[in-house]
TrEMBL record:
The lineage of its organism: Bacteria, Pseudomonadati, Pseudomonadota, Betaproteobacteria, Burkholderiales. Pfam families: PilM_2 (PF11104). It comes from the Bacteria. InterPro entries: ATPase_NBD, FtsA/MreB, PilM. This is Type IV pilus assembly protein PilM. CDD domains: ASKHA_NBD_PilM. Transmembrane segments: none annotated.
Length: 359
């Protein structure tokens, strides 16, 4: 069975992580050097046309499979094993508490019995997996177990996509879990190794900005907003009369008229910073928390000029752009300048690639 969630994989063999979003597919391959440090062997991005992937659903299977084949070829990898991910909306997760010391078989029986209470469809229709998170804080003789379940067809869609691209899906994860795994390295680099720090992670996608607030690896709050980089493309279309495809291409290449920075980019950056500030206000009003210590920005729009400063101003917290490859050795096959420019887009695919080293 395919793993779903922050789940175990006995896959020491090479593995690529591929993140498929509404606007692009991103591939990352990692290795360990002799000292046990992470090495970025390969990374590549292949754009997807709007409508091919909608709300995590594959609407144009053949087109996405072709794009994955191009992505694999572009990256130069020969690795066939792949970790993919589903959006959180496609997966039900539940943390339960069970007695410590149970065998794997006993755990499996218990998990299936518990899962029946939380999953609104027959267990025959789902891919189900679980992992022991650790001892329960309030009950020393018990352990916390994370259950993750998704409709089988959703998992099979990802499997089929991998097969059509000549790959083998050995892990199907959850996008937000993979992003957190990659972000955990960056949080550890904060003062005091990030212990007790309240960190807000924003991933600005094409259509959606997802927010997770994390403290000591625990998610305090998460929320998605229907706002993203596609709005900037629409503003460019309206301002200059380009087609959406032209606007997207010119945005990526920086090939825009002289007044772009003042007429289009600056107002968009201000609006995006306001959206992030508003999301943080929702967090403060709906939880006991009243501060964040650090804001991390990921996604294709994260490096926009002036965005970190605008977010800091609106949120009153230190803000930085994510580079999931920070502190890694960079392999000879990676084009440094291109990687540095695109790094914030690779957060989830980097987390998927890191699954290779989780036993």
């Amino acid at each position: 069975m395919i793993s779903v969630g922050a789940l175990l994989s006995q896959q020491p063999a090479p593995l690529v992580g591929i993140d498929i979003s509404s606007s692009s597919a991103k591939l990352v391959e990692l290795a360990h050097n002799k000292a046990g440090g992470l090495v970025l062997e390969r990374c590549a991005i292949e754009p997807l046309e709007r409508g091919w992937i909608t709300d995590g659903n594959i609407e144009k299977f053949d087109e996405v499979a072709d794009a994955l084949r191009r992505l694999v070829k572009k990256s130069g990898t020969r690795t066939k094993n792949v970790a993919l991910a589903l959006p959180p909306s496609a997966v039900i997760t539940k943390k339960i508490t069970l007695p410590a010391g149970m065998t794997d078989q006993e755990l499996e029986v218990q998990v299936e019995s518990e899962a029946n209470q939380y999953i609104p469809f027959s267990l025959d229709e789902v891919s189900l997996d679980f992992c022991v998170v650790g001892p329960n804080k309030s009950s020393p003789g018990d352990v916390d177990v994370l259950i993750a379940a998704s409709r089988r067809e959703k998992v099979q869609d990802r499997q089929g996509l991998a097969e059509a691209a000549g790959l083998k899906a050995v892990i199907v994860d959850i996008e937000s879990y993979a992003a957190r795994l990659a972000a955990s390295r960056l949080i550890e680099a904060l003062p005091n190794k990030g212990v007790d720090a309240v960190v807000a992670l924003f991933e600005v996608g094409a259509l959606t900005t997802s927010m997770q607030v994390i403290r000591n690896e625990e998610v305090l709050y998460d929320r998605d907003q229907a706002f993203g980089g596609a709005q900037l493309t629409q503003l460019i279309v309206r301002q200059y009369g380009f087609s959406p495809e032209e606007a997207e291409s010119k945005k990526r290449n920086g090939d825009l008229p002289d007044d772009y920075a003042s007429a289009v980019l600056k107002p968009f950056v201000e609006t995006l910073a306001q959206e992030i500030g508003r999301a943080l206000q929702f967090f403060f009003t709906s939880t006991p928390h009243n501060r964040v210590d650090h804001i991390l920005l990921a996604g294709g729009s994260a490096p926009l000029p002036g965005l970190t400063e605008a977010v800091t101003q609106h949120a009153g917290a230190v803000c930085s752009v994510v580079n999931p490859f920070e502190g890694m050795e960079i392999g000879s096959g990676v084009r440094m300048k291109k990687m540095a420019r695109e790094a914030p887009s690779y957060l989830t695919s980097c987390g998927l690639a890191m699954r290779r080293f989780l036993q």
